[in-house]
Amino acid sequence: MKVTIVGAGNVGATAADVIASRSIVSEVVLLDIKDGFAEGKALDIMQTSTTKGFNTRVVGVTSDYSKTNNSDVVVITSGVPRKPGMTREELVGINAKIVKDVTKNILNFSKNPVIVVVSNPMDTMTYLALKSSGLDKKRIIGMGGALDSSRFKTYISLALNKPANDIHAMVIGGHGDTTMIPLHRFAKYNGLPLSDFINKNEIDEVVKSTMIGGATLTKLLGTSAWYAPGSSIAYVVDTIVNDHKRIIPSSVYLDGDYGFSDVCIGVPCVLGKNGIEEIISLDLNNDEKLILSKSVHAVKSMNESLINHI
Ligand code: NAD
């Protein structure tokens, strides 16, 4: 199995590191436009192989797409990250051109890869990658729900003072501070509802912390985070290449699902070797349906700014 990661910045290089360290695939190609940058990151990661004990080959290239040939999965992290005070939405113009060019270049050398889109604004970039690639809708997956759900689970575990790996919870909707929907009604600690452990105000606090989770880190770090995003990418890639069929909230093209069409937005999906194996229909209550519809509306209005790119 071969995975290409386009963009060897903080998020892309961290994803390559986690994928290699866990021996998820035999070869990772890391590509960047910055001269020598991906080569340097790849070599640095390779030089951890004996101390970490993995044999995955990590190859770095500067804009040479021929080295990405026959990739099974391609992850797009190329683009500009958010700066403090900048919304994901403000990134749209800059990153649309990059994502479209990258998608075209990738398809010159890999006929039918599963593409995982990470660049922000992620839901809109996923829609753009789908429309500009002509690939089957099941093969284009936006990664955001894996990360937001992981943040949600972390905040729940801190509030409950219980292990994060015993928490099951998911975030659906758009991958934005105001559009994501941490589904607290569905969250469980070892099968038991959150409301058995914390009160409504505490649940509201956890939801709020999750929604501003990315912005909190951007403020602290001066740029957007990379450990959890990189690790979430590796989790999604592992699920696809090893056909784990895990349910991971992902931004996918809705075609009547949840009552919406012609939009990519986060819903729970079974991921496996074909990409999106199944979209899971949750029994949302009226409040949740209303928030999801607002979220879809916000993503769709951002998609309108793609008019010159599709
Ligand atoms: P970064 O600046 O560290 O890395 C981006 C890299 O992309 C740079 O090395 C740059 O040279 C490269 N690049 C730019 N244009 C390119 C092109 N045309 N071809 C190849 N490479 C190109 O940024 P980062 O922190 O790694 O973030 C990358 C993207 O991921 C941003 O858009 C960020 O907002 C997004 N992000 C998304 C999530 C998510 O959950 N979906 C999480 C974190 C970050």
Overview features:
310 residues, alpha/beta, six-stranded parallel sheet, three-stranded antiparallel sheet, 10 helices, 22% strand, globular, binds nicotinamide-adenine-dinucleotide
What does this entry show, briefly?
This protein is of the alpha/beta class and 310 residues long. The protein is built from ten helices and 14 strands. The strands form four sheets. It has a six-stranded parallel β-sheet with strand order 3-2-1-4-5-6, with helices on both faces. The chain has a three-stranded antiparallel β-sheet with strand order 7-10-11, covered by helices on one side.
SSE map:
Blueprint: E1 2-6, H1 10-21, E2 27-32, H2 37-46, H3 49-52, E3 57-62, E4 73-76, H4 92-107, E5 114-117, H5 122-133, E6 140-142, H6 145-160, E7 167-168, E8 171-173, E9 180-182, E10 188-189, E11 192-193, H7 200-211, H8 213-221, H9 227-241, E12 246-255, E13 261-272, E14 275-279, H10 286-303
Parallel strand pairs: 1-2, 1-4, 2-3, 4-5, 5-6
Antiparallel strand pairs: 7-10, 8-9, 10-11, 12-13, 13-14
Helix pairs in contact: 1-2, 1-9, 4-5, 5-10, 6-7, 6-9, 7-8
The structure holds nicotinamide-adenine-dinucleotide.
Explain what this protein looks like in three dimensions.
By secondary structure, the chain is α/β, with parallel strands linked by helices. Helices cover 40% and strands 22% of the residues. The chain contains ten helices and 14 strands. It has helices at 10-21, 37-46, 49-52, 92-107, 122-133, 145-160, 200-211, 213-221, 227-241, 286-303; strands spanning 2-6, 27-32, 57-62, 73-76, 114-117, 140-142, 167-168, 171-173, 180-182, 188-189, 192-193, 246-255, 261-272, 275-279. It has a six-stranded parallel β-sheet with strand order 3-2-1-4-5-6, sandwiched between helices. Strands 7-10-11 form a three-stranded antiparallel β-sheet, covered by helices on one side. α1 crosses α9 (227-241), α4 (92-107) packs parallel to α5 and α5 (122-133) packs across α10. The longest helix is centred in the last third of the chain and has 18 residues, at 286-303. The protein is globular. The mean pLDDT is 96. The structure holds nicotinamide-adenine-dinucleotide (NAD). Nicotinamide-adenine-dinucleotide is lined by residues 6-12, 31-34, 37, 77-82, 91, 95, 98, 101-102, 118-120, 122, 143-144, 147, 175, 224, 226, 229.
